[in-house]
Write a structure and sequence with these properties.
heterodimer, A: alpha/beta, Rossmann fold, 5 helices, 19% strand, B: alpha+beta, Rhopdopsin 7-helix transmembrane proteins, Beta-Lactamase, 7 domains, six-stranded antiparallel beta sheet, five-stranded antiparallel beta sheet, 38 helices, 17% strand, flat
Chain lengths: 121, 1289
């Protein structure tokens, strides 16, 4: 299992596809959780090298997911990149994630950050 | 053993069954003393009847003999049980003790033993045969000597029992009497029958009719029981009251012997009641010699004592009461002991356990030595009487204590059996009597050893083995000998053990097995299919025929079922007792819970009571304060005249402190100037309950004298008795002084009584409250009316105008109009009056002379007294009187006039003072009345004493009278009154001089107004006499304030809403944009396949346009945020170096594209860490530098971060671009403005960038400067306050 694995939690199907494609194109395996309720199952099967997290999700609050991820042993070390268009909430989670990016985020930036953060691990 | 049916046995069986039922019924009431004896009596009779029936039915001689002997169990014991029953029934609560019972039982026991062995000695029966009369056959015996002993003894017991019962009949009443008569008839009848039989007078010569008479007995007993509820009434009452008591109770007779004692008492002293009754109390309480000495002679006392030691220690409340009989003669003492802290009742059996026995020091020693001396004897004892199994597995629903006892008995029995078996094996071995059975013996013995030793093995298994063994023995007997005695016995044992060791089901099962065994063998043997191997006599082969088999089996069934019933009822009563104990424990728990509940409730009630007491004491405290702060001295004395209380005023007046005064008699203040009679009168008045009023001349601590006007009143208790005297005293020294001074002065002037009267009249006028101008003429008239002065009826009074040194005519009588006009004003020294004023001496003239400077045409000659009115050296005025011509001065008149002038002088002084006071009051009143503030006063209790017109107006009153006397709380809104009262109570009690408070008031016309008031406590001589308030109607102010607060809240709410809206817009705009950019970038990266150059270009354009759109959205949102004031700046530490690096990284690709040089500089004197919003700073730099790149075609872009001075730092972006024209520099920072308003392809933008930059800089507390020349480029400088990270050290 030498390939790097990224988990994208993003409800917008377009964006989800963009991120997954962008990550795959630089050699990541990528899984998408479109509603914010599948990620625990995905995490149980495989621990990703990086998580991209949207804050506005239909079935869960991104802030809560962030808290859960940070508080759960075994998951707390996974690098998390928060990507949101909500500038207010973005301010609240600063410092809790490795990166907080305001959408739109350039594909190259995603690729760079993914390579950088996942590579460190 | 086989039986044949015989009609004679029917009544006997009926008799046995009824007796047995009676026995069971009585047993179920066994808590009562006589019931056990009655039950045993019933059993004995039942056994006798059953035995006689079986004797008659017995087919063989052996069977008849066996049952004939067995009857003696009942025959021998029945009289004994009768006696015991009679005794216990007649002497309630005073049972026969065990020793005596044993003595009485000696002869019956011997009789029984002899009956079983009678063939050996013939002492009971000499010759034994069978008498046959038709169907009836029974034993026929001749009696030995012991029979007659037994006979005599039985009749003796019967007679004694009957006598006891008869004697008690006299004492008994109603029900009991009938009961007892029934009893006697029931019991005596069989013995009469017996006597008839033995004497040969039986109606049926061969038949013993005694057992038939038993039917009578039983019927009598049944009648007694069911008709009168024989054992129900008084015994049960005793059982419930005394035995069930948790409190221990011991009854002693007058000699100190224990007459009665209940179970609880037995538990306390560790001795069962049966052992203690009849013994001297010294003996049973021997372990507690101290208690004995303490209570030996005690009667009617209660005390707490400790009994036992260690874990068994208990604290008891012991009370001793003397009992009296109907004639009030003492008959004994009752000792009751109540456990004070032990809550767990101990079961009855525990009385024998050492743990509850009190431990005396001697016991302690014994116990510690015991294990060392445990020899073989103890070991053997422990083997045969094993301890209770500590943790047995107990079947459900079975009393664990019973189970333990049963298991112990079982084990002990088996051990005895095992030892016996072993001994027998040894004997067999010793005498070499080996047979094939020896091996079986050995096996059985081994089995017994195993079962008796393996106590931890399942009890079920062990009992099953034993049951199997017993059944095997029975089977062995039956197989070998048919219906033999042993076979029957073993089968009965099998059934009984099954019930006892297992349960009713097990018993019934065993019974069925036994029945089946007997039935099948009986049938087969009687049918001749099975031959008993050891019986060769065909006639005696058991059973002889089918009838005998059936009868025998039925007899067995009856005996088995009876035994099952006995065992089951025994077990049931044991379990019932256990259940009751559990119920009692539960009840106890409930009661304790209830008690706790009550304690909690009671605590609540107490707390309430305490609160109300506190409230009451608050009220008291106020009264007390009033007394403490009273301006009068208040002294409280008791009936002996000792001072119990003085208030602070007393201390001030007398000079004695409270400590010095308390306990003293008020006579310590006596000056000795008043006659003893004065005090005697005083005392007589108050001691008869009347109020005394008078004046004291007292002496202070410092020796000075003073006068007091006192009221002394007796203080009466509710009963009307005088408990104290209270004296309320005013210091009237000053008043007294004035009076006395005047008197002395007048005495000095040697004025007569008339003069004094005249002077008194003057003073009296002077005391009137009218204005001076009204009084002066009357004063004048009063002097003129003194006839002996010889004055003419005219005169006047001048008042002095001290400043202008002149006199003004203020009152006159009968003065001529000319004089009135001329003498309106007279200068000091002018004319006679002026001279008198100037010289301050009385002027007398007999005639008008040159000194009479003022005169008029036609003025008649006359004389004058011109009397100056003086106050010390000051001239207050002059009185002028007319005399007839040629009058001579009279010394007495001069004296009097001088005295009158003095009096008038003092009146003037007083009036002047009053006038001055009034004037100043009027002045202040005017201020107050015209003040725009509400001003009012209250007394110390809060009642209005004054309110100015503004206050009246504001509060909706028309006249001052409407508000005076009302309490200030009435004005407040009802819901605000509590808080208001608390606030001012606090001010009053804390002694705060001034306070400010706001409260809603309700004006008289129902309007609500807010009042804010300054309240000042008005004090006089340290006492609070009232409150003065200056208040303002702050309703409008309050409304404005509230409105402001509301609008502020609304504004905040709106701002919050705007922020949320912005966040929402931001989200909704950026999300789709992210999709656009993402897909375009992916296409650009050829993620969806290679693109041709045109497609590539298109993708790039999409990305660029979308990015531009994104920037614009960002700027618009920023602007919106700034405008809604919801832009928040972060204050966090950041590194300027990193900031510069990041900006560099973003800009460098742009400058590279345009071939511009980018230089970034960080000043070394800048701190490594600053405080600020680094993202906004980055935004500022990118904005400025982005513009620079946009407008610069060649040259360089330079970014500096630097420090200007100690408090400021800056960011500078310089370019070599087109520069900004001077006129444009003014509006360039305004929103949506660009140079020339020119939007070209190259420089397009929202026009918000610079505006936002400026606003953010200003939000950061900094400023932005622009220095630009067209053609030379622009320099933007941002200056910011330096916020360094706080130095932790």
């Amino acid at each position: 299992m030498t390939t790097l694995f990224a988990l994208v939690i993003e409800d917008d199907p377009m964006l989800g596809k963009v991120y997954v494609t962008a990550l795959k194109s630089i050699g990541f395996e990528a899984a998408l959780d479109p509603d914010g309720d599948l990620y625990p199952k995905i995490l149980e099967t495989r621990i990703p090298n990086i998580i991209f997290l949207d804050l506005h999700l239909p079935y869960a609050s991104g802030v809560e997911i962030l808290k859960t991820l940070r508080a759960t042993p075994g998951w707390s070390e996974i690098p998390i990149v928060v990507m949101t268009a909500d500038i207010i909430t973005a301010k609240q989670v600063e410092g809790q994630a490795q990166e907080v990016l305001i959408k739109p985020v350039s594909v190259m930036r995603i690729q760079r950050i993914a390579a950088q953060l996942a590579g460190v691990n | 053993m086989q039986f044949l049916y015989n009609p004679y046995i029917l009544p006997l069986v009926v008799s046995a069954v009824i007796s047995f039922a009676v026995a069971l019924y009585a047993w179920s009431r066994k808590n009562t003393p006589s019931a056990v004896a009655l039950a045993l009596l019933g059993l004995a009779i039942a056994e006798w009847s059953a035995g006689y029936a079986l004797e008659i039915a017995g087919a063989s001689f052996e069977t008849k003999l066996l049952w004939g002997k067995l009857q003696y169990i009942g025959i021998a014991t029945a009289p004994l049980f009768w006696l015991i029953f009679a005794f216990n029934h007649a002497h309630q609560g005073n049972r026969l003790n065990h020793q005596r019972m044993f003595l009485l039982a000696l002869i019956p026991l011997i009789t029984m033993a002899l009956a079983f062995t009678t063939e050996l000695h013939g002492w009971l029966w000499k010759e034994i045969g069978v008498s046959q009369h038709g169907d009836f056959s029974a034993l026929k015996v001749s009696y030995g000597f012991w029979f007659w002993i037994h006979f005599a003894y039985s009749y003796l017991l019967l007679a004694v029992g009957a006598w006891i019962v008869l004697r008690s009949v006299g004492k008994m009443q109603g029900l009991y009497r009938g009961q007892t008569v029934a009893l006697i008839v029931a019991v005596v009848s069989p013995w009469v029958a017996n006597a008839l039989y033995l004497s040969g007078n039986s109606p049926i010569p061969f038949l013993d009719i005694t057992p038939f008479a038993f039917t009578l007995t039983v019927a009598g007993l049944a009648w007694g029981i069911f008709g009168f509820r024989l054992v129900d009434i008084s015994p049960i009452a005793r059982s419930q009251v005394v035995e069930a008591m948790r409190d221990g109770m011991i009854v002693l007779d007058m000699r100190g012997r224990v007459v009665d004692m209940n179970q609880a008492a037995g538990l306390i002293i560790g001795l069962p009641a049966a052992q203690a009754i009849g013994k001297p109390v010294e003996e049973i309480l021997a372990p507690w010699p101290d208690l004995l000495t303490r209570f030996r002679a005690a009667a009617d006392t209660t005390a707490e004592v400790t009994i036992g030691q260690g874990a068994a220690q208990r604290l008891y409340q012991v009370s001793i009461e003397t009992m009296y009989d109907a004639r009030q003669m003492p008959v004994g003492r009752v000792i009751t002991g109540r456990a004070l802290q032990a809550t767990v009742p101990q079961p009855r059996f525990a009385a024998h356990e050492t743990s509850t026995r009190p431990v005396s020091p001697a016991d302690n020693n014994l116990r510690s030595e015991a294990p060392a001396r445990a020899g073989w004897l103890e070991q053997a004892l422990k083997f045969f009487v094993p301890p209770l199994l500590p943790n047995p597995k107990i079947p459900e629903g079975v009393n664990p204590l019973w189970f333990q006892a049963l298991e112990r008995a079982f084990t002990a029995m088996l051990r005895v059996a095992a030892v016996a078996g072993t001994l027998q094996l040894i004997l067999i071995f010793f005498y070499r009597m080996f047979s094939p059975l020896t091996l079986v013996y050995a096996a059985v013995t081994l089995l017994l050893w195993w079962i008796s030793l393996a106590r931890s093995t399942s009890f079920t298994l062990r009992s099953d083995v034993i049951l199997l063994l017993v059944y095997s023995l029975a089977l062995l007997e039956i197989v070998n000998y048919g219906y033999s005695v042993e076979g029957f016995t073993f089968l009965l044992a099998f059934v009984v053990l099954a019930v006892l060791l297992r349960d009713l089901r097990g018993g019934v099962l065993a019974f069925l097995i036994a029945l089946f065994t007997l039935g099948s063998f009986g049938w087969q043997i009687s049918a001749g299919n099975y031959f008993l191997p050891n019986i060769f006599d065909e006639d005696n082969a058991a059973p002889a025929n089918l009838q005998a088999a059936i009868t025998s089996t039925l007899a067995f069934s009856a005996a088995s079922l009876a035994l099952i019933v006995v065992v089951v009822s025994l077990l049931r009563s044991v379990n019932m007792a256990w259940q009751k104990e559990i119920q009692a424990l539960n009840l106890l728990q409930q009661e304790r819970d209830l008690l706790e509940q009550r304690v909690i409730e009671r605590t609540g009630a107490l707390a309430e009571a305490r609160d109300s007491a506190e409230k009451a004491s608050d009220e008291l405290r106020k009264y007390f304060l009033a007394i403490e702060q009273s301006g009068s001295s208040i002294v409280l004395t008791n009936l002996n005249g000792e001072i119990e209380y003085v208030n602070p005023r007393f201390e001030i007046v007398t000079g004695y402190t409270r400590q010095e005064a308390l306990g003293q008699n008020p006579r310590l203040l006596k000056s000795g100037n008043q006659a003893p009679k004065f005090y005697v009168d005083l005392w007589n008045t108050i001691s008869t309950g009347n109020i005394w009023q008078g004046e004291f001349n007292n002496r202070r601590k410092d020796g000075s004298l003073y006068w007091e006007s006192a009221t002394i009143a007796p203080v009466k208790a509710q009963s009307g008795a005088v408990t104290h005297y209270i004296a309320i005293k005013e210091d009237i020294t000053a008043e007294k002084q004035l009076r006395e001074d005047l008197q002395r002065k007048n005495e000095d002037l040697q004025v007569s009584q008339e003069e004094q009267q005249a002077l008194a009249a003057l003073l009296k006028i002077g005391m009137e409250p009218q204005p001076l101008n009204d009084l002066l003429p009357r004063l004048l008239d009063e002097i003129l009316a003194v006839r002996w002065l010889g004055l003419e009826a005219k005169g006047g009074i001048f008042l002095a105008d001290g400043e202008n040194r002149r006199l003004i005519l203020s009152a006159q009588r009968n003065l001529s109009p000319q004089i009135r006009g001329l003498c309106q004003q007279i200068a000091f020294g002018q004319c006679l009056c002026g001279r008198a004023a100037a010289s301050r001496e009385i002027f007398f003239t007999g005639n008008v002379d040159h000194q009479h400077e003022i005169s008029y045409e036609g003025m008649a000659d006359h004389g004058h007294y011109n009397v100056p009115i003086l106050a010390g050296e000051r001239v207050l005025g002059v009185m002028v009187f007319y005399l007839p011509v040629g009058s001579q001065p009279v010394a007495r008149n001069l004296h009097f006039l001088q005295a009158a002038a003095n009096s008038i002088g003092s009146i003037l002084e007083k009036k002047n003072a009053e006038t001055r006071l009034q004037e100043s009051e009027i002045r202040f009143r005017q201020i107050v009345e015209n003040a725009s503030d509400l001003i009012y006063r209250t007394d110390a209790l809060g009642h209005f004493t004054y309110a100015n017109p503004t206050a009246l107006r504001a509060l909706g009153f028309e006249r001052e009278d409407d508000v005076l006397g009302r309490h200030f709380l009435e004005l407040a809104l009802p819901e605000a009154q509590r808080a208001l009262k608390r606030f001012y109570d606090h001010q009053f009690l804390a002694g705060k001089t001034t306070t400010y408070y706001e409260f809603p008031a309700l004006s008289a016309d129902g309007q609500m107004i807010w009042i804010g008031q300054n309240v000042r406590m008005v004090q006089e001589n340290g006492n609070i006499i009232g409150f003065q308030a200056v208040a303002r109607d702050i309703t409008t102010l309050k409304q404005t304030r509230d409105a402001l607060a509301l609008s502020r809240d609304q504004a905040l709410e709106a701002s919050r809403f705007k922020s949320q809206l912005l966040a929402k817009i931001s989200h909704e705009l950026r999300t789709p944009l992210a999709g656009v950019i993402g897909y375009a970038e992916l296409m650009e990266q050829a993620a969806f396949g290679p693109l041709n150059p045109e497609q590539q270009d298109a993708a790039e354009n999409i990305v660029t346009s979308a990015n531009y759109l994104n920037t614009m959205i960002g700027e618009l949102l920023d602007q919106a945020q700034i405008e809604s004031q919801s832009l928040q700046l972060r204050q966090a530490p950041f590194s300027p170096a990193t900031l510069l690096e990041q900006v560099d990284a973003i800009l460098r690709p742009l400058t590279k594209r345009k071939a511009l040089t980018l230089t970034c500089n960080l000043a070394p004197d800048l701190p490594a860490t600053l405080i600020g919003d680094v993202q906004r700073l980055q935004q500022l730099l990118i904005n400025l530098a982005g513009n620079a790149v946009k407008f610069t075609t060649q040259g360089e872009i330079k970014i500096d971060i630097f420090r200007t001075d100690a408090t400021r730092w800056g960011l500078r972006v310089a370019d070599t671009g087109a520069g900004i024209p001077e006129e444009a520099q003014e509006y360039i920072f305004e929103p949506f403005r660009q140079v020339d308003n020119a939007i070209t392809r190259n420089n397009r933008g929202t026009g918000l960038g610079l505006s936002i930059t400026k606003q953010i800089v200003e939000l950061m507390g900094g400023e932005i400067l622009l220095n630009s020349q067209v053609g030379h480029g622009s320099i933007f400088t941002i200056l910011l306050p330096l916020k360094e990270k706080e130095n932790k050290s």
